[in-house]
Amino acid sequence: MNRSKSWALILIAVGFLICMHQIGMHFHVMGLLVPVAMVGLGYVGITHGKKMGWLIFGIGALILITKLSGFLAIVFAVWLMYYGYRLLKKQNDSAEFRL
């Protein structure tokens, strides 16, 4: 796929999501579009040497982190369980060698 086809598909997908939101079918993605766009525009500004890019990137990242806080909490909880499992497994493996 070339660049124009990719851009067209992205625009169609965003338009579809906006229409579904207006109809009443919420995909919970609409609240993420603005912060993701801010992060993207901030990154473009940073790469072009604009100081305003850092501000836009930072605000977008903070909004995105607050929107994804529930998901991040779940990821952190799963990581804690995995880390605890690894510690138990490591403890059991070392106990087998102490006969």
Automatic annotation (TrEMBL):
Q: Which residues form the LiaF transmembrane domain?
A: 7-93
Membrane-crossing ranges are 7-23, 29-46, 53-82
Q: Would the keyword Cytoplasm turn up in this protein's UniProt record?
A: no
Spell out the Pfam families in the cross-references.
LiaF-TM
Arranged from A to Z, the UniProt key words for this protein are: Membrane, Transmembrane, Transmembrane helix
Its recorded name reads LiaF transmembrane domain-containing protein
